[in-house]
Amino acid sequence: MSIPRYDGYIFDLDGTIYLGELLLPGAPELLAALRAEGRQVAFLSNNPTKTREQYVTKLRGMGLQADLAEVVNSSHVLVEWLLEHAPRATLFVCGEAPLIGELQAAGFPMSEQAGEVQIVVASFDRTFTYHKLQVAFDAIRAGARLVATNPDRFCPVPGGGEPDAAAIIAAIEACTNTRCEVNVGKPSPIMARAISAMLGLPPERCIMVGDRLMTDIAMGVGAGMATALVLTGDSTRADLPAAPAQPTYVIEGLLELLS
């Protein structure tokens, strides 16, 4: 299959460019070729456990060129969304230190007092405890809103996966009998608009490359982008028939994008 070139290439990270600390085959060669042709490159992750600066450091440590202006992740998008829609809200965060640090740096106060919390943030949280669930429960029962960084069920790691934000969201929703109001991560159009604005390109001139049908491909299709499902992470060919959003291309590895 001949795959045309696009002006903008948006790459998922986990399961697409790397898996854990392992750089996936073809990534260095593809990125170098695209940059040599003058294509715009961006990296887009639902994972909020690293800051954008940490992602740049990781990519550079793997020998890849990466600049801060090329990286967007769900915590960054959440900060921007909150600054626009609830700029003075007091938060309680079921999340890890990088996310909390970004929210605090943006000026959001934190509290564990139900009457003070206006928004509960649910996220990928390997430090999640019953205490955190109790605080979220009390805050939402007192009127707080529930928002989330990303809807992923698990995060791929070598040899398996780790339960992701969907598990935290589900626990909070189950005990409070409420629904998450906003989820800013892929496949949300909020995330799609953020990456399009960063690239300065219309969606039809971009291709979204990722390993997940329900997030990467669904976001790209919904935004009007071309999409490429790479079979190095979560989704498989067996998942394709049941997927609501179908990719433009299905590739075994990244270098097929140069064909």
- Biggest sheet layout: 6 strands, parallel
Question: How many H/I helical runs?
Answer: 8
Helix content: 25-40%
Uncertain parts: none
Spatial extent as radius of gyration: 18 Å
Question: Would you mind describing this structure in some detail?
Answer:
The chain is of the alpha/beta class and 259 residues long. It is 34% helix and 20% strand. It has helices spanning 27-36, 52-61, 74-85, 97-105, 130-141, 165-176, 189-199, 213-223; strands at residues 8-12, 18-19, 22-23, 40-45, 71-73, 91-94, 119-122, 145-148, 154-157, 160-163, 182-183, 206-210, 226-230, 249-251. The strands form four sheets. It has a six-stranded parallel beta sheet with strand order 5-4-1-12-13-14, sandwiched between helices. The protein has a four-stranded parallel beta sheet with strand order 6-7-8-11. Strand 9 and strand 10 form a beta hairpin. Helix 5 (130-141) packs across helix 6.
Spell out the key features of this protein:
259 residues; alpha/beta; six-stranded parallel beta sheet; four-stranded parallel beta sheet; 8 helices; 14 strands; 34% helix; globular
Short description:
The chain is an alpha/beta fold.
